[in-house]
Amino acid sequence: xxxxxxxxxxxxxxxxxxxxxxxxxxxxxxxxxxxxxxxxxxxxxxxxxxxxxxxxxxxxxxxxxxxxxxxxxxxxxxxxxxxxxxxxxxxxxxxxxxxxxxxxxxxxxxxxxxxxxxxxxxxxxxxxxxxxxxxxxxxxxxxxxxxxxxxxxxxxxxxxxxxxxxxxxxxxxxxxxxxxxxxxxxxxxxxxxxxxxxxxxxxxxxxxxxxxxxxxxxxxxxxxxxxxxxxxxxxxxxxxxxxxxxxxxxxxxxxxxxxxxxxxxxxxxxxxxxxxxxxxxxxxxxxxxxxxxxxxxxxxxxxxxxxxxxxxxxxxxxxxxxxxxxxxxxxxxxxxxxxxxxxxxxxxxxxxxxxxxxxxxxxxxxxxxxxxxxxxxxxxxxxxxxxxxxxxxxxxxxxxxxxxxxxxxxxxxxxxxxxxxxxxxxxxxxxxxxxxxxxxxxxxxxxxxxxxxxxxxxxxxxxxxxxxxxxxxxxxxxxxxxxxxxxxxxxxxxxxxxxxxxxxxxxxxxxxxxxxxxxxxxxxxxxxxxxxxxxxxxxxxxxxxxxxxxxxxxxxxxxxxxxxxxxxxxxxxxxxxxxxxxxxxxxxxxxxxxxxxxxxxxxxxxxxxxxxxxxxxxxxxxxxxxxxxxxxxxxxxxxxxxxxxxxxxxxxxxxxxxxxxxxxxxxxxxxxxxx
Length: 675
Known about the structure:
By secondary structure, the chain is an alpha/beta fold. It has 20 helices and 32 strands. Among the domains are: about 180 residues, Rossmann fold (3-Layer(aba) Sandwich); about 120 residues, GMP Synthetase, Chain A, domain 3 (2-Layer Sandwich). The protein is about 30% helix and about 25% strand. Strand 11 and strand 12 form a beta hairpin.
């Protein structure tokens, strides 16, 4: 593989600043979701060069996608490379959708082979940097070669079409290579996040019936080695799984146990194969991957995604939402173990022929400017990260950004949860220099790709809203009886028509699929999220329905209370949960981290309570404010509110905590009361 450092593209002329259309509330004012009125239009220069350059164009395309989906998606699908043309665009019998029936294609071929007959052949497909500082670049030609070689390794170990393969790797190019190799031969991959425990691995191996596991000796995180191989060994103890082979990539060069007859080294297996491996033509509805949802109680759900519709949606959203082109260096900071890493680090960008950047480690290793240094070094143009990361950057301070030139950035994105307006503004002003559109994307593991999102060259954006539905996404916000609610009224978010990348089921459990997603409202997909629509048609995600508090008969979204807290100048991050209250039904408990240099005190606690009361109203006044050095997060940056609810209620901590970034945070929170 090539070890060459990525060439730094020529710096682009910065785009003009986004225009503020109306400013009923000053940018420095505090506000909740309900009072946010700042509107930012795309600059004329950005719109001029964008694929979708106006709201009129977006509305025409959206209307066609809803009213004539066969015509719209049939046309879009022709951009993929089909081994056999499809005969029908959509066959829908709720809750089962079949897209592009009769068609055959291969995802690996679409991500690699079709780019080899032109200038993309020698273009960087993946740029990688390891946490210790190693750098690698794989061109499309080199990535194709490595994928074919590893696909032949899988075939050497008797992996065939339809077999399940578990991938448990750090953030290294081999993770993408393994995924694409599985897709090339028709195996179904099941990527397990590298922060999961042995028990979590075993659950996924057993449920999916995997026959082969791909792992590494270890991976790096904050200067330490994560013992991936040991976790796999522990998961496979007892010989009560279907796994016959474990392929081990040498990453950290530490001593690991190698079980004879089961374990083999990646690099040694490559010695037995060549780089010729034709892609297998797969039915459009053939299974591509299983990805298990995590972080909730109960048995994880194995979300099943198929081939044609998923790939099309991933490619389309990269094309229209990220406005991705051949000159871009695109960086999605998500781990490949999450669906964001699947759709927007591997499949979407590579299908479009883009350059995708991967980074292995933590954003604050060895110092708090690691992300900004990477953006400057590789001249990143599109940056896609999570609101939790953005709030952490805010807490660390602006001085870390000031050390680096971020002028290459032309587009910013957020993913994972609603972003509070003040974090949006900081991201816009400090990271984007006031010139970059922000695409705040709402979607789920189950949806496969973006569902509600701005189109950067067309959509006027407001801080904190995901704005409008993507093509083919027919959304509604309804009450418990399925009746649409009025403007600015909170309700349940549903999707009334099928879309190409929708989940096709829960692995091995048809009844759970029906009960979980299609039973609340007959014929409609229920997302499990609460939302509201403002007077301009923008959709505001309130948060999970089970994160909606019922305080003295009033329904409050935890995201709204969190947003109010973070709008206070002393607060870096907040998480809000409910606890049982005999008088009100639920009381409001706020876990707050403050910015660098701020001292916590009873006075600050009282000030924050008054602040929330002022921003939202008396009903939202917190019952308790707990200050914390950090909040309990997974390595992907998700706050584990399940644990905070248990802490707030004074309960014993239950459930899996192995995905936590820092287990010590829980002990600190349990021992802390209100300051």
